[in-house]
Design a protein that fits this description.
Layout (H helix, E strand, L loop, with lengths): L10 H15 L11 H11 L4 H14 L3 H6 L2 H8 L6 H17 L7 H5 L6 H11 L9 H10 L9 H14 L5 H14 L18 H4 L16 E11 L5 E5 L10 E2 L2 E2 L1 H4 L4 H9 L4 E12 L3 E11 L10 E4 L11 H6 L5
Parallel strand pairs: 1-6
Antiparallel strand pairs: 1-4, 2-3, 2-7, 5-6
Helix pairs in contact: 1-11, 2-3, 2-8, 8-11, 9-11
C-alpha cells in the first residue's frame, strides 16, 4: 500500500459499477425515503453500534414522537430516553437532543450544510458529519464507518491495522479521491451497503460482488485475511446485587442514575457493588448510602449485561422496607403499573419479570 495505489486504479469504472449495483439492490429503509437531513442524522446516530433490523422500529417510533428538530429540542429528556429505551448507548440520545437544541437556537432549525458548523455540534464526529453532508446535502465528503473500512481494506489491499486512527485517516483520504462529484450520496451509501450485504466480516460473497474485478485482496485470495484489526481489550467483569425493594403498600423503590456517565439519566433498581461491600454489610450499606432500612429476602435470579468495555454480573434479590417516605432524592416509590412510564436500561427491564 503506497501513495501510488490509485494511480492505475479504474476509479470511474469502480464508481459506476458500485452505484449501479446499489440502485438495483439497496434495501428499502425508512430513512432512504428522502434526503431529509434530520432523518439522515437520526438514523446515523441510531445505527452507531446497532444493527439495521434493530434500528428500524426505533426510527419509526422516534420520528412519530419527534417529527422535526423543534419537537425534539422541546422534549422532556426523560421522554427522549424512554423512546430510546432498549437501543443502548444512551449518550447518543442525549447528545442528539443537545445538538438539535443548538440547531434550533443558533441556526433557526436548519441543520448546517457547512462542514465546520455541522462538525461542531455535540455527538457529530467525522463519520456522522460525512454521512449527513454526502447523503442529505450531496457534498463529496467521506463517511468512513466499519463497513467502509472493511471494503476498502480489501479493494485496495490495505494491510494496516484498522483499529488505528492513522489507518482511518488513510481510508478517508482514499474515499475523498474515489468519491464522485456528481453523486456522492449514492456512492457513500453504496459502499456502506456493499459492506453490509456482500463484503461481510466473515465469508464475504466475493462471487456476487459487483466490484470484484477491482479488488486487490480477491485477486490474491486474501479477502479473508483483511482487514487487519488488533484485538480489543478484555472486558472488566463487575458483580452487583440488584434489589427489588418494596414496602407494605407494594410500592417498589427505583433509583435515577447520575446525569453523567454510564446510562446517565436512566432509572434502575438499586445496585450494590457486592465485591466492595461484602454480603455481611449489604443492608448497612443501603442504610448509609440511601438512609433506607431494608431486609433482604430470597434470590430471584441472575443476569449478565455486556457493555463495550465492562460486563455487569447481576444477582437479583427481593427486599422489604417498612419505610413509607424516602429522604434520598435519587429514589422514588412506584407501583408495578407505573414502571413503564420510566426509561430503564435493558438489564433492569428484564428484572421486572420478577415483580409480582
Amino acid at each position: 500500500m503506497n501513495d501510488k495505489t490509485l494511480q492505475f486504479f479504474d476509479t470511474t469504472g469502480f464508481q459506476q459499477d458500485l452505484i449501479d449495483w446499489y440502485h438495483a439492490n439497496k434495501r428499502d429503509l425508512p430513512w432512504r425515503m428522502d434526503q431529509d437531513p434530520y432523518k439522515v442524522w437520526v438514523s446515523e446516530i441510531m445505527l452507531q453500534q446497532t444493527k439495521v433490523d434493530t434500528v428500524i422500529p426505533y426510527f419509526y417510533r422516534f420520528m412519530e414522537k419527534f417529527p422535526t428538530v423543534y419537537q425534539l429540542a422541546d422534549a422532556d429528556p426523560q421522554d427522549v430516553l424512554k423512546v430510546w429505551e432498549g437501543l443502548g448507548y444512551y449518550s447518543r440520545a442525549r447528545n442528539l437532543q443537545n445538538a438539535v437544541q443548538e440547531v434550533v437556537d443558533t441556526y433557526g432549525g436548519e441543520i448546517p450544510a457547512n462542514p465546520d458548523e455541522l462538525g461542531s455540534l455535540k455527538g457529530i464526529g467525522p463519520y456522522t458529519k460525512g454521512a449527513i453532508l454526502s447523503i442529505a446535502y450531496n457534498q463529496p465528503e467521506p463517511a468512513v464507518d466499519g463497513n467502509v473500512m472493511r471494503v476498502l481494506s480489501r479493494i485496495l489491499k490495505i494491510e494496516d491495522d484498522i483499529a488505528q486512527q492513522r489507518t482511518k485517516k488513510l481510508v478517508e483520504a482514499y474515499v475523498r479521491e474515489l468519491i464522485p462529484e456528481d453523486d456522492p450520496s449514492s456512492f457513500n451509501q453504496a459502499i456502506m451497503e456493499l459492506g453490509a450485504l456482500v463484503c461481510t466480516p466473515k465469508s464475504p460473497a466475493c462471487l456476487l460482488c459487483p466490484v470484484q474485478e477491482y479488488c486487490l485482496a480477491f485477486a490474491e485470495g486474501r479477502e479473508n485475511d483483511l482487514p487487519v484489526k488488533s484485538k480489543a481489550k478484555k472486558q472488566n467483569k463487575i458483580p452487583y446485587v440488584s434489589l427489588l425493594i418494596k414496602n407494605e403498600n407494594s410500592a417498589y423503590i427505583i433509583e435515577k442514575r447520575a446525569e453523567k456517565g454510564l446510562l446517565a439519566g436512566l432509572w434502575q433498581f438499586p445496585m450494590v457493588p457486592i465485591n466492595e461491600i461484602g454480603w455481611d454489610h449489604l443492608e448497612n450499606w443501603i442504610l448509609s448510602e440511601y438512609g433506607l432500612e431494608i431486609k433482604v429476602s430470597e434470590k430471584k435470579g441472575e443476569l449478565k449485561h455486556v457493555f463495550s468495555h465492562i460486563v455487569w454480573e447481576l444477582e437479583i434479590y427481593g427486599a422489604t422496607t417498612h419505610q413509607q417516605y424516602l429522604t434520598d432524592e435519587r429514589l422514588r416509590f412506584v407501583y408495578k403499573e407505573e414502571l413503564q412510564a420510566y426509561p430503564f436500561p435493558v438489564s433492569h427491564q428484564k428484572m421486572m419479570t420478577y415483580i409480582v
